[in-house]
Amino acid sequence: MWQFLTSLFRKKDYQLKRYPSSRELHMKNIVLFGPPGAGKGTQAEVLKEKYELVHISTGDVFRYNIKNETDLGTLAKSYMDQGHLVPDEVTINMLNAEVEKNAGANGFIFDGFPRTAAQAEALAQLMEEKSSQINAMVALEVDDEILVGRLLERGKSSGRPDDANEEVIRERIAEYYRKTDILKEFYQAQDKYHGVDGVGSIEEITVRLSEVIDNL
Ligand code: AMP
Hints:
This protein is α/β, with parallel strands linked by helices. The protein has helices spanning 2-18, 22-25, 40-51, 58-67, 71-80, 88-101, 117-129, 144-158, 166-180, 183-188, 202-214, and strands spanning 30-33, 54-57, 108-111, 136-141, 193-197.
């Protein structure tokens, strides 16, 4: 009898390793996309509760490292203060570690990642290793001048040096158009891009995003 039971468990282990578990197949992984100031962080906080997803903001992880004066924080700060992107290799390794820390998650909301083609490729590979995938890129669309106004306003209370200076704000938006905006095409080619009007109240925008997510 015991032999029979242990052989069943062994078989189950074997199957779990070879095939995606039902949890992995039902994971919802969403890239929340948009330029700086589009409202990604605000919406991610709401959506993570609503859909029980783990929210990973690479900007928040960098700021946590800066606060704790780690080597990663020192390196990241030298780029962030100028409105430039942190190099891909460092960012990708950090993101992989954050995903690994949350191995039991129902799925993820990625906020501020990917921001380059190399990061998008790395994310696809990471999801594939987990027998999962990115289900959608949901993009908040907001005009540049509204973004600048919002970020200057946020800078009055956020304590973020990169929100405090209009030149740095404009450089962050320029960096977005140089390196990040092209990712729309990356996800459009896979039929995963969903643009949403990012102007309105927080609640109105959550409704728009939810309409997309509910239909995934
Ligand atoms: P955020 O909080 O998303 O506005 O990011 C703030 C800053 O952190 C950015 O301007 C970049 O310097 C850095 N950063 C955040 N995410 C990334 C990323 N995926 N790749 C490179 N740099 C990033």
